[in-house]
Specification:
By secondary structure, this protein is α/β, with parallel strands linked by helices. It has helices at about 40-45, 55-65, 70-80, 155-165, 185-195, 210-220, 235-240, 245-260, 280-285, 315-325, 390-395, 400-405, 415, 420-425, 430-435, and strands at about 10, 15-20, 25-30, 35, 85-90, 125-130, 170-175, 200-205, 225-230, 265-270, 290-295, 335-340, 360-365, 370, 385.
Length: about 450
Amino acid sequence: MEQYKGKYPVLKDTVRIKRFPNFCWIIELISDCNRAIAPIEAFLLVNCTGEWSYRQLCYLLGETYSLEAETAKDIASKTLEALKTCILWLDKPQKVEGIYSPSDFIYRTRPGALATQERCDTPCELLLSLTNLCNFKCIYCFNASGQEKTVEIETDKWIHLIRQAGEMGVLKCTLTGGEPMLYKGFYTILEELVRFHIMPYICTNGSLIDPEVVRTFQTLGIRAVQISMDSAVPDIHHKLTATNNSFSKVVQGIEHLTAAGIAVNVKTVLTPHNLKNIQHLIALCNRIGVRKLTLDRFDVSSCGRGGSGLLISEQQMAEVKSLILADKNRIANNMEVVATSTAQKWNTKEDIVFCGAFRRSMVVLPNGDVSVCEKLMDVPEMTVGNISRDSLYDIWTSSRIADILSPPKDRLDDVCKGCGHLEKCGTGCFAIKYFLGQSPFSTDPRCFMASKVNNPYAKL
């Protein structure tokens, strides 16, 4: 940590930390850091207030936990390096008021506790799908947004949920849809999230963002917005979104946000239609000040648009990652480019994707239903309560969630029953299995233990 000698770390205001009995959970809004940390690491971070130098923090850590100087320095350096996206470094001391009391993170945990295998006592994150309405009709949309599908709950129901979430210490709330900005109570919901110190994260197509919207975002203290943009070529963008003349509005929306200092994360869905133009997209995002570009693969959904013909192969994904490496030296403005590393064919245990649904997070659909996933809209078996009639606490502690996360063994395929990864994997993605017409508790079709019959991933 020689590069930080004589400098003063500050925890970013886009960071939230939550205490649990055996671990803490941290979320950083812009970098999408979302992980378990040890209480001693949380203690170190909340003491990053700009008044202590790195050397002083090491001393504070050692004195508080009765550690040898070298041990304290080793813990501090590893923590600050692993969580570097959560920290700013000042050249001189400057006291920055934080929202945490360091003493709250001095406590004992159960020996041998594995945070990654534990379900949180209360949710860390909510995703509110406010509406199915959308002014785009993207050909890959996983919930086929465009037209209203169900009776949408009123704004006061969302406000009541947010107040409960604030009391339960929810850290982050993602607003999505459809196009969330088309929901009539959108700004009221934003205001309430800010009032309860829950970080709002807006996922939008960007076409409705103008200077007046940006001024409102600034007034509310919005720090980051995710915008969907799938190509730098207007014709391809229009084909993928099934719109006309929308590309320029999306680009202008991004420019308005970046000019105002609001971080923009662009999310791109990779399909055979836009693979050849990824370098153009990287160049455009870099030029207009995008903070992070995430390239994600299309995935099938039982209630979405697009079938297996929109999937891309592992080889094609590898080529995308090679393009990113080739462009690395040409990317300026600290823009980060990330291609999802999760495998669509699980060849080894390292490929298994562990979903956080109902373990750390919860999804609420436009009609108030609480579901495992947006991709499972109108699937009663995957629905646990409705916020119009059930409290957030009652939903989170419902026995129905326990049945989903830990189903009876007689519902499982033989290969899953004896699998050592079942506790974390939970049989994999329910949405993919519904798309294939399989039992939600059958083996994930991507898994190396799965049947190859009717499996769109087998040939990838």
